[in-house]
Amino acid sequence: MKKWRIFLCSLLVLGVQPLIALANRDSAVVKQAKQSVVYIDYKPVLTAYSIPLEGGVNGVVVDKQEGYVLTSGMIGEPAIPEYTISFFNGIKAEAKLCYSDPWLNFAILKLDPAIIPNEIIAAKISDQEPREGEAVFTVAIPKEKKTQRTISRGRVSDTNFITMLRMPEHLISISMYTNDGGVGSLVFNEKGEGIALSCYASDTHKLGLHPTYLRYVLSFLREHKTPIRKHIGSLLESYSLDNAVKYDCFLSKWQKEYVKKFQKAKNNILVVSCILKGSPAEGKLKIGDIIWAIDGKQGRSKFSRL
Questions:
Q1: Which residues span the domain enclosing 56?
Q2: DSSP 8-state assignment for residue 192
Q3: Which of 9, 37, 95, 122 has the smallest C-beta neighbourhood within 10 Å, fewest atoms?
Q4: 215 Rama class: left (phi>0) / alpha (psi -120 to 50) / beta
Q5: Is the model's pLDDT at 151 over the cut of 70?
């Protein structure tokens, strides 16, 4: 009996050790992410015809050497000349707008790198494609307590989310119970790397901008160059395949094949709703065209390439 007790105790110790190591690793990853996330206060220019609304949004340090802070595009307006960044330790610093993309709803601020606390490790934008079912977490900072960080956990529910609105962007959908907002911060994977920029949030899920856009812009800024816009110049919107069959001579067998292959598309496909004059799409695409394949890949492919 004594030998069995010793054996069982050994098993318990051996089983607990990996869990302790995993918990320590997890806490280190989360701590690093929490320190990289900042709060940004912004103050617009006062004019005679507008209400002087001040506000704030989350952001994240993505390049410590250059002093780049990634955030939501809602603050990337010429009428907002003043930005104050609050770090995890209470230190504040002034920043300037470096790059803004209102089309894709993200912006990058620049501050003096020497001001960034030594403890902060810049968040890395993941080189890997987000995976459906992947475990993720977010870090959010409330306006009232700028040294406090709230952690929410969830999973990627859709890697090619289709909105019912016009969509030039490639979005990632995350199932997550949270009411902390966190817009402007990254969605982190288990390695602590950003797989999306949180741009919309509700109590049950978040939508994040695909990391391809973020990596592309940062690659230019780090070489002190202006990013070249690659958008083809067409706005897309979700369109029911039932309507395509009814009004656009779309064959029923095509619909059945598509729905069977892409169940998460929910019987919807993308169609061209607008063409921008002078863009690459002009003369090649027409309003009403169905996007059937991208780079030769059928269906819900990498919309970020558009």
A1: 36-115
A2: S
A3: 9
A4: alpha
A5: yes
